Amino acid sequence: MRTLRLLALSSVGVAALSLGAAPVAAQSSAPAKAKTSKVPRTPWGKPDLGGIWDFRTVTPLERPVELGNKATLTEQEAIEFAKAAVDARDADKNRDKEQRRVVNGTAETEDVALAYNNVWWDRGTKVVGTLRTSLIVDPPNGRLPEMTPEGKARVGDEDMRRERPAWGPEDRSVGERCILGFNSGPPMTPAAYNMNVQIFQTENTVALLNEMVHNARIVPVDGRESAKVPQWVGTSKGHWEGDTFVVETSGFYQTTSLRGSSPSLKLTEKFTRQDEDVLLYEYTVNDPKTWTKPYTVQIPMVKSDGVIFEYACHEGNYGMTSLLSGARYIEKNGVAKPASK
Fold first, then answer.
1. Cα-trace Rg, the chain
2. Which residues of 154-166 are buried (b: 16+ CB within 10 A; e: fewer)?
3. CA 30 to CA 299: how far, in whole Å?
4. Could you tell me the residue range of the domain that residue 87 belongs to?
5. pLDDT digit string (tens) for 48-94?
6. Which end of the chain is more exposed for a tag (fewer CB within 10 A), N or C?
C-alpha cells in the first residue's frame, strides 16, 4: 500500500515543466528590452548589487520538448504561454483533478500535493524578459545534459527512499528537512514561493540573504583563505570580472538543492547589474559525477520594493516529527513494512 507523500519541490522537478503541464517555477518578468539608464555604482566604483531581487518566473528550467529548437517566444506567444502556465498550476481550479484511489469502496486521496490551496503559492505570472523558452541557455537545446550512470543511480536511490515510510530524517530531501531551501541553493532556481534574495555589499564582502530558509551566504572578495570544511552550501569565493561579480563555490557537504548532485559539484555564479531594475543572474553547474557535461542557466532578477520576511520552516517544527510518527504508525499496524537495507 502506497503511503501519503509530501509534495516534492526540487530544481530537477522544475525541469519537468512543459507548455501543457503545471510549472513549478515562476517569476515577475524583466523588461523585454534593456533600459538605457546608467548602472548604479558604489562609492568605490563597482556596480551596486544591493537591494532585494525577485526571481519568480513561469519560464521553465528546461525548454518544453514540443518547442524543439525554438529559443525565444514572440510577445504574443509569451502572453499565451504565461496564461496557460498559470491556469495549469492553479491549485484551486485543479483540485478536482487530484489523483484518487478506492479503498474498501471509498475514494481516498493518494497524494497531499494539493493540500495547500492557491493562496499559499507565489510562482509569478510572467516569462522572463528575454522571452526565452527555457532558463537553460547552454546546451543550446535548452535541456539538461544526460545524467551519468552514477547520477542516475543516485536519483534512483533517492526515489526509493522517498517512497517508503521514512526510516529517519535522512530519507527526506534537504529541502523537506529545512537544511537548504529548494529555491535558494546555491544555485538559486525559481520554485514555488519565497523567491527573493537581498544583497548587501562592501568592498571586501558580498552577502546574499535568501528569503527561503532565511539562509545568508557570505562571499569574501579579498582573496582570504577559507576553512577546508565541507558545508551544506559549499565554500564561496568572489571576484570581479569587469562589471560582473563572479562567485565560485565548491566543497559541498553532501547533496545540494540540485536533485542528484554530488559533493564534487563546482558552481560558478555571475551577477551583472544591467540597469536600475534588472540584475542578470547566471550560473554554470559542473558536476562530472552527475551530468555528462556542464550546463548554464540565466535568470533576469527584477528589483523589488518589498521586504524580506522571516521564513519559519516545518510549520512550528512539527512537520518532521509528524512525518516520522506517521511512518512508525504505518509500520506498527502492518500497513507497510520497510524493505531490508
1. 21
2. bbeebeeeeebbb
3. 9
4. 11-332
5. 999 999 999 999 999 999 999 999 999 999 999 999 999 988 877 77
6. C
Q: Is residue 1 part of a domain?
A: no
Flag whether 125 is in a domain. Answer: yes
Strand pairing category for 136-138 and 295-303: antiparallel
Residue type, 156: G
In a domain? residue 185: yes
- Domains in the chain: how many in total? 1
Amino acid in the structure at residue 175? G
For residue 208, what is its C-alpha cell?
Answer: 546574499
CA–CA dist 172, 323 (Å, integer): 10
If we measure between CA atoms, which residue out of 135, 36, 126, 53 comes closest to residue 302? 53
DSSP letters along 253-276, please?
-S--SSTT--TT-EEEEEEEE-SS
Kind of pairing between the strands at 244-250 and 266-273:
antiparallel
Q: Say if residue 168 is exposed, middle or buried (CB neighbours under 10 Å; 0-12, 13-18, 19+).
A: exposed
What is the separation of C-alpha 214 from the centre of its chain, rounded to a whole number of angstroms?
A: 14
pTM: 0.82
Residues 6 or more apart from 132 whose CB is under 8 A from it?
59, 71, 72, 73, 142, 298
Q: What pLDDT digit, counting tens, does each position of 190-244 carry?
A: 999 999 999 999 999 999 999 999 889 999 999 888 888 999 999 999 999 999 9
Please name the amino acid found at residue 158.
E
CA separation for the pair 339, 284 (Å, rounded):
38
Secondary structure (H, E, C), 134-148 = CCEEECCCCCCCCEC
> Grid coordinates in use for 163?
517512497
